[in-house]
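pasting Phosphoribosyl-AMP cyclohydrolase for the record, 138 residues
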Amino acid sequence: MGSEAEKTYDNSVTLDPRIKARLKYDDKGLVCAVVQQYDTHEVLMVGYMDDEALRRTLTGGRVTFWSRSRQEYWRKGDTSGHVQYVKSVRLDCDGDALLVEVDQVGAACHTGKRSCFDEGGPLPAAVGMRPEGLGERS
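structre below
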C-alpha cells in the first residue's frame, strides 16, 4: 500500500498540477529545499528543486536537486555514497520552500562534514529572551 500522497497525487510522468499550483518559484523556476535529518531534526543542507527534481524526489525515495552551477540534475549520493533517503516532504505556508526530511548516510555537505552549517560557523547575533508570562510557543 502506498502513502496517502501516492494515492492522492499522480507524479508518475510529470509533477501533479495540484502540487505545482501550490509552489511559488524564484525567477529561475526553482524552489528552496531545506534538508533535515528526520529523527534528530538536524538541518543538513539547502538545495534547489524545479518541478522535475521534486517529482523525482517524491517518486524515487531519494533526494534529487537541480544544480544551479552545473545546470543539471543530481541525486544526492550517486558519486559520494552519501545518500539521502526521503522520509517526508512538506511545503511551507507560503509555497516558496520545501522541508525534506531524510535519513542521511554519511556527510550531507560537499566538504565532508555532516551538515553544510558546520563549516560556516555561527554569526554574532543578539540573543532574544521571551518575557516570562508571555505565553507558550504555538
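The two ends are 34 Å apart (CA to CA).
The chain has a mean pLDDT of 91.
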